[in-house]
Design brief:
This protein is of the alpha/beta class. The protein has a single domain, classed as Alpha-Beta Barrel (TIM Barrel), CATH 3.20.20.190. Helix content is about 35%, strand content about 20%. Strands 1-2-5-6-7-11-12-13 form an eight-stranded parallel β-barrel. A hairpin with a 5-residue loop joins strand 2 and strand 3. The longest helix has 17 residues. The two termini are about 20 Å apart.
Length: about 290
């Protein structure tokens, strides 16, 4: 299975491979450097085109991408950033030529309702065996699991609460997060455990989840059955969390370890965890082979 492969250091948004995040040039540079894993985020335009962008808007305070056509969002991106948004189909086309030698793609789906379009693009480029589906939204994972017949590994992103410190900081984020970022909604354990998965609804363009003592119930079951993973911030990782998920047959993925010393120490301590890094030098072929 994909997550059992040796790649443990993954490029987070192709940062460092070009001046813009996730650009055609960045993809080429990453592949030439021997990168074996790429993570990126998808958004959908008002006219149904899937673009690669982390935030809901192209710039802070701007219109959400989901409320703009592809033409208008591309024009805005060129004006603000000096470069166009990359389309999902273009990235998949670049990667598909490498076939089995290509990187593992961690596709982070930020909004729900267009899972069928994403799956069709993956199938079109014959990359089902090179993709991990990532999302902060349980409904996205359930939907793609149904559509794919359970063939895609699923990865649930969340904030992990495992001690008093993280409990306090996450409560603060849940209360104040939306005040600093109006489009952000932070959902807590009651949402994740108390609502049947197919009755859940998208909660704005940006949704985060707080989970105490590990994912449980139907969500944990579908992740485990897919031979998937969970994704958390690296400082939230503990041995208890690792062991909890290991016992369920679920891998752990962490993000934003960017210094070589911290990366090496972390990989030695957490020997099965996959790391998403913003440091392009840490996910070169040499780094992957020695991790």
């Amino acid at each position: 299975m994909i997550l059992q492969e040796t790649c443990r250091v993954v490029s987070h948004r192709l940062r460092g491979f070009d001046s813009a995040e996730v650009s055609p040039k960045g993809v080429v540079n990453a592949l030439n450097a021997g990168v074996k894993g790429i993570e990126f985020d998808t958004r959908i335009t008002a006219d149904g085109q899937i673009v690669i962008n982390h935030d809901a808007c192209i710039y802070k305070g701007g219109k959400p991408i989901c409320s703009q056509t592809l033409i208008s969002s591309q024009a805005e991106a060129v004006t603000i950033r000096g470069s166009r948004l990359m389309l999902l189909e273009d990235l998949l086309e670049q990667v598909a030529v490498y076939k089995e030698a290509g990187p593992i793609l961690y596709i982070d789906i930020k909004e729900n309702g267009y899972e069928d379009i994403i799956l069709a693009e993956i199938q079109k480029h014959q990359l089902l065996n090179r993709v991990v589906i990532v999302s902060w939204l349980p409904e996205v994972l359930f939907r793609l699991n149904d559509l794919s017949g359970g063939t895609l590994p699923l990865c649930f992103s969340h904030h992990a609460v495992s001690n008093k410190f993280t409990s306090v900081t996450m409560k603060y984020r849940a209360i104040w997060g939306s005040r600093f970022s109006p489009r952000l909604r932070v959902l807590q354990d009651r949402y994740n455990t108390g609502i049947p998965p197919r009755d859940r609804k998208t909660y704005g363009e940006d949704t985060e989840h707080i989970v105490t003592n590990g994912v449980k119930g139907d969500l944990a079951e579908v992740i485990s059955n897919s031979k998937g993973a969970v994704c958390i911030y690296w400082r939230q990782m503990t041995e208890n969390i690792r062991d909890y998920y290991r016992n369920l047959g679920i891998r752990t993925v962490v993000y934003s370890i960017d210094k070589p010393g911290k990366l090496n120490a972390f990989l030695q301590k957490f020997d099965t965890t996959i790391v998403l890094t913003n440091n392009h030098q840490l996910c070169s072929l040499k780094a992957v082979e020695t991790s």
